[in-house]
Amino acid sequence: MNQPPQIMGIVNINDDSFSGDGTLDITAAFEQAVKMVGEGADIIDIGAESARTNREAISVEEEIGRLLPFLDRCQEFPAKIAVNTWRPQVAQAVLETGKVWMINDIGGLDTDANAKLCAEFGAVLLIMHTKGLPKEPHFEETYTDVWKDLDEFFDSKIELALSTGLSPDQIVLDPGIDFAKQCSDNLSIYRELESLTSRGYSVLLPVSRKTVIGDVLQLPDPSSRDAGTVACLVRGLRAGANIFRVHNVAAAAQASQVITAIHSTS
């Protein structure tokens, strides 16, 4: 799809985010979101549970209890809102507020429940490639051919999503960088990303501060990986990805604006 790139800022309403930027203070989380919009975020992605597998899962009730107070503050919010969740009960609760543009399903669309909810409420659904369910460790997952696995996965999940009544423009694909993948798998995805963008669906790249960047640069502290994040963003822009999920919105938005200007035909 030939769409202008969009920057998605990450707001973690939790106290165990891998990058150390989460907060359980709703006021602080909302102020962080507003600041990101001012820095150039088109979308704010809110999540109440860390995807880290060395942390206990929180309950459905606690997840909803963290998200709804934030959404209550989003009257006439100047950016689109995505909610990062995989539980259908949570997805329904946030969609019922009428304020959520996207369900960012990191569960790999294990069932059609979230697709049905997005179809019912007219929301966008993100489908992320992974193995198994969230909060379960998949560090040893290996692939003979990671792209063969991605192609088969997306063939199946897109068919499932469309069968619920979702239209193609309500579907966004995410290759799942770092999720059940080794460093070489992640680099292969970046190297051959056109294989995904050529499908004709919007593609989200979760480029921010990923482990693959730390592996390449030998940087164990996620907060020190912003330069590597920009490098991944530039590669994604060149390959035709549409949405870039980041912590450092200002750096990503500025890089996107410059690269877009360079390649503008005007």
What does the model show?
The chain is α/β, with parallel strands linked by helices and 266 residues long. It has one domain: Alpha-Beta Barrel (TIM Barrel). Helices cover 41% and strands 14% of the residues. The protein is built from ten helices and eight strands. It has helices at residues 26-39, 60-72, 88-95, 113-121, 146-163, 183-191, 194-197, 211-217, 226-239, 249-262; strands spanning 6-12, 43-47, 80-84, 102-105, 124-128, 171-174, 202-205, 243-246. The protein has an eight-stranded parallel β-barrel, surrounded by six helices. α2 (60-72) links the parallel β2 (43-47) and β3 (80-84). α3 (88-95) runs parallel beside α4 and α9 runs parallel beside α10. The protein starts with 5 loop residues before the first strand and ends with a helix.
Summarize, please:
The protein has helices at residues 26-39, 60-72, 88-95, 113-121, 146-163, 183-191, 194-197, 211-217, 226-239, 249-262, and strands at 6-12, 43-47, 80-84, 102-105, 124-128, 171-174, 202-205, 243-246. The protein is of the alpha/beta class. The chain has a single domain (6-204), classed as TIM Barrel (Alpha-Beta Barrel), CATH 3.20.20.
Mean pLDDT: 92
Order of helices and strands: EHEHEHEHEHEHHEHHEH
| Structural Rg | 17 Å
Number of helices: 10
**Major pleated sheet:** 8 strands, parallel, barrel
Identify the overall geometry: globular
Supply the helix-strand structural class: alpha/beta
User: What is the distance, rounded to the nearest whole angstrom, between the alpha carbons of the first and last residues?
Assistant: 20 Å
Q: In CATH, what is the homologous superfamily? A: Dihydropteroate synthase-like
Query: CATH architecture, please?
Result: Alpha-Beta Barrel
Number of domains: 1
The beta-strand count equals: 8
Q: Just give the CATH class.
A: Alpha Beta
Oligomer: single chain
Beta-strand share of residues: 5-15%
User: In the CATH scheme, what's the topology name?
Assistant: TIM Barrel
